Amino acid sequence: MLQLRPNCECCNRDLPPEALDARICSFECTFCADCADTRLHGHCPNCGGELVRRPVRPAAKLLNNPASTERVFKPQGCASE
Q1: pTM for this predicted structure
Q2: CA distances from 63 to 48, 66, 68 (A)
Q3: Is the Cβ–Cβ distance between 49 and 20 less than 8 Å?
Q4: Which of 33, 43, 44, 60 has its CA at a distance of 20 to 30 angstroms from the CA of residue 24?
Q5: In what order do the strands lie in the sheet with 30-32?
């Protein structure tokens, strides 16, 4: 099950579970669409994998399967090229 991390690793912007602009790689590294597109050019700085839109978990399912509250912030890996 996806963790649905709460923020962008680059800019620390909040990304709630219903965010349509959240992007993830296959390891669930999480970024906002702006950082994913402009700074990272669609590739995860951690693993090099493709960044794709994170699915939205239905609100009713969040009750028993809540999103993660653990924030990951690694701005050093997100420098603009």
Answers
A1: 0.92
A2: 33, 6, 12
A3: no
A4: 60
A5: 30-32, 22-24, 52-53
Q: What is the pLDDT of residues 2-58, one digit of tens each?
A: 999 999 999 999 999 999 999 999 999 999 999 999 999 999 999 999 999 999 999
Q: What is the pLDDT of residues 49-75, one digit of tens each?
A: 999 999 999 999 999 999 999 999 998
48: left (phi over 0), alpha (psi -120 to 50) or beta: left
CATH pick for 1-64 out of 3.30.40, 3.40.630, 3.40.720, 3.40.50: 3.30.40
| Neighbouring-strand partners of residue 43 | 50
